[in-house]
Amino acid sequence: MKLSHIGNTDLLQIHNLKINNNIIFAKCEFQNPSGSHKDRTFLHIINSLEKKSVIQPGMTLVDCSTGNGGAALAWIGREKGYKVKIFMPEGMTKERIDQIKKYGAELIETPKEQFLNGCVEAASKFCINNISTYYLDQAGSELNMEAWYQCGNEIVDQLKEKGVSPDYFVCSIGTGGTFSGITKVMKKAFPSLKAIGIEVDKSAPVYSKVNGLYFEHKPHNLMGLGAGLLSKNTDLSLIDEIKVIKGDAAWERMRSFIEEEGIGIGPTCGSNLLITERLMEKVNNKVIVTLFFDSAWKYQSRWNGIYPEYL
Q: All domains of the chain, ordered by start, with CATH?
């Protein structure tokens, strides 16, 4: 695989999901080289910082991740001549840990009690104390959102090629960059589009803010969502509705979808499917677009959806 293989993923119509004559399309980001949507994020961040002469090959690039971002950064960094150090909360899947190490990155696990906040603190401290390092900060960098304009444009072009105008975009929110970047582009092309964001119920800062509720992060099993903070990449003005999903339900929908369709998607894709299907039960003759973030093989060691460290 080459860096040029990132992007231009399929927009798949899921014909077997027939509810009230609605049509569903899924953008297959699991087709990216490292198996997830994060390839787009880190390629754009690194390319942009290189153009500004902020970083250059030979330096050590640092970031925090529960797995997908770490693997994407490790692979892209290696291909572009960087050393990579990933800070990760302990207890993530063996497959994603092994993938990061296979790409040659150094992995530092931080205490589970602090989850991603502990990673941020450790990564920041490391970069302060070490020269020739750069903390990419995917959650805080607005380059994250910018990375998704390309994907949004791909979706717009693919829909127009099919002669279709979408009514809804449904997407889970982690760092917020994916949701916000795609939504911004799609709403410009299709002004009547409504965007529905999704969070895991045990860590839902957007849902709490929108509904005036007290926010408290609790451990959960949808890694990639619910980091415990509201990222500045989450543009609240783009969200028409925000829904919450139970982690166990998302895992179960992932497993049943794989059995039904033979398409190996990850658990956060299950959350997108569940909310999309609930929407389809309420509307008629609409076109709905969602995202399949990553690949099922990254979760084989936790196939029951249980993370003992986070119970």
A: 3-31+148-310 (3.40.50.1100), 38-138 (3.40.50.1100)
Residues 6+ apart with CB under 8 A from 194: 167, 168, 169, 240, 241
Summarised one tens digit per residue, pLDDT across range 64-105 is 999 999 999 999 999 999 999 999 999 999 999 999 999 999
* Whole-angstrom distance, CA of residue 306 vs CA of residue 308: 6
Backbone Cα Rg of the chain: 18
Span of 109-123, 194-208, 238-252 with lowest mean pLDDT: 109-123
